[in-house]
TrEMBL record, chain A:
One of its GO terms (biological process) is protein maturation. This is Hydrogenase assembly protein HypC. One of its GO terms (molecular function) is carbon dioxide binding. Transmembrane segments: none annotated. SUPFAM superfamilies: HupF/HypC-like. Pfam families: HupF_HypC. InterPro entries: Hydgase_assmbl_chp_CS, Hydrogenase_HupF/HypC. It comes from Sporolactobacillus laevolacticus DSM 442. It comes from the Bacteria. Belongs to the HupF/HypC family.
UniProtKB/TrEMBL annotation, chain B:
Pfam families: HypD (PF01924). The keyword Iron applies. The keyword tRNA processing does not apply. Belongs to the HypD family. GO terms for biological process: protein maturation. This is Hydrogenase formation protein HypD. GO terms for molecular function: 4 iron, 4 sulfur cluster binding; carbon monoxide binding; iron ion binding. Keywords: Iron, Metal-binding.
């Protein structure tokens, strides 16, 4: 029930957006993420976009984890 | 720019797992005990089991399931009441799929459906409002179970029903809040852990600040974490570092999704339609102000006020779901696990829900034979 999935916005209307989730297209509400733009990813929960994925932070996190994986632990 | 995970991340995950093991062993050398962390969210329970993290780390880090599976924490009397709602003729009961097979004292929603009651699974609570619009001569009740992630969506359904004046729609809300239950676990249940893997999705709504009391009042570290293997491993890594350095803090390891102040739009609609109330939790009893109920001005949308539903005391079973959600037992410690209780014949909600600790353990960690 709680699992949110990242979905790519491919069409935006006033209160809803058409999103692509791993190749499946579906309509979700954007009441909580009204500023989402086409091409951005949102986390969807129970039919509503809950958060826009911030690409800068996503990239920074990936770099941080790669560094962590290479770190020496004495 | 890479923003989502790719296959090459599995190499990073393997490396990270080795680093986590080393760090955990150093922690044990220093403190004399195996570090124990609680994953608060049911989705983490399932993701940690499915990814193999629980198995790989089991001799180095104790990962305990917490009170984050919404169906599992729901008190049996509430479960019985929600099933009873479906008994009346001329009623359509809509629910998230997780609720269908949860055993009630007499039967489940699924068996009620099999015996002719109109019980429907919906993906979104807003779909239930649409069903009410399409069936104006029948009462439609949505069973609203969930934490702070789900409550704004429940509020959106109430708002839609209010706007469209859908008089035959109502909601049976049994919602739970994360902060009061974490406080209860630490101060009343005295659960023995060294830190929390904090729920990524609840935090989308609440933000980072919601957990600061853990570090300030309980000297307990917490890391807000996503659900990919690398995200969870790095979250555990950060917890171990804080335990080793004895520097508890609340860290956001899911910054791409969780903002410091959460989602203010979701918070606003949640507060408009819901108000704090006392809630009874499975295995923990009543925790003051640990849930949200529909505000009085919208009581015409509150199924608990609209319908007279009474249930007796729940049937007693040997199910230990109450202990599971408090981190006081693991599924293999329940004598029914894998014998009288299986996913085909579940005895408790932890074996039914996609986020339940027993169902995760059964699918990914059960020893054969
Ligand atoms: S194994 Fe079944 S009976 Fe035992 S605690 Fe889990 S759900 Fe309850």
């Amino acid at each position: 029930m709680c699992v949110g999935v990242p979905a790519k916005v491919i069409e935006k209307n006033e209160f809803t957006a058409l999103v692509d989730v791993l190749g499946t297209k579906m309509e979700v509400g954007i009441l909580f993420v009204p500023d989402v733009e086409i091409g951005e990813y949102v986390i969807v929960h129970a039919g509503q976009g809950m958060s826009i994925i911030d690409q800068t932070f996503a990239q920074a996190s990936i770099e941080e984890w790669e560094k962590m994986a290479r770190a020496d632990i004495i | 720019m890479r923003t989502l995970f790719e296959p090459k991340d599995s190499a990073v995950a393997r490396e990270l797992a080795q680093k986590v093991i080393k760090l955990a062993d150093r922690c044990k050398e220093k403190t004399g005990v195996t570090p124990a962390f609680m994953e608060v969210c049911g989705s983490h329970t399932m993701a940690l089991a499915r990814s193999g993290i629980k198995l790989i780390l089991q001799d180095h880090v104790r990962l305990l399931s917490g009170p984050g599976c919404p169906v599992c924490v729901t008190d049996q009397k509430q479960i019985d009441a929600m099933i009873e709602v479906a008994e009346a003729q001329n009623r359509i009961v809509c629910t998230f799929g997780d609720m269908m097979r949860v055993p009630g004292s007499k039967r489940s929603l699924l068996s009620a459906k099999t015996e002719g009651r109109d019980v429907r699974i919906v993906y979104s609570p807003l779909d239930a409002v649409r069903i009410a619009q399409e069936n104006p001569d029948r009462e439609v009740v949505f069973l609203g179970v969930g934490f702070e992630t789900t409550v704004p969506v429940l509020a959106a359904a109430l708002q839609l029903a209010e706007l469209k004046q859908v008089e035959n729609f109502s909601m049976w809300a049994t919602t739970k809040l994360v902060q009061p239950v974490l406080r209860t676990l630490l101060s009343v249940k005295k659960v023995k852990i060294h830190g929390f893997l904090l729920p990524g999705h609840v935090s989308i709504v609440l933000g980072e600040q919601a957990y600061q009391f853990l570090a300030d009042e309980f000297h307990m570290p917490g890391v807000i974490t996503g659900f990919e293997t690398v995200e969870m491993l790095s979250g555990i890594y950060k917890l171990l570092q804080m335990v080793l350095n004895d520097q508890p803090a609340i860290l956001n390891n899911y910054k791409s999704v969780v903002r410091p102040d959460g989602n203010p739009i979701a918070q606003k609609i949640m507060n408009e339609f819901f108000t704090p109330c006392d809630e009874t939790w499975r295995g923990m009893g009543m925790i003051p102000q640990s849930g949200l109920d529909i505000r009085d001005q919208y009581s015409h949308l509150n199924a608990k006020k609209k319908f007279n539903v009474t249930v007796g005391e729940p049937k007693k079973t040997l199910c230990r779901c109450g202990d599971m959600i408090c981190g006081l037992a693991t599924p293999d410690e329940c004598i029914l696990f894998g014998k009288a209780c299986t996913p085909i014949h579940p005895v408790g909600p932890c074996m039914v829900s996609d986020e339940g600790s027993c169902s995760a353990y059964y699918a990914y960690m059960r020893k054969e034979g």
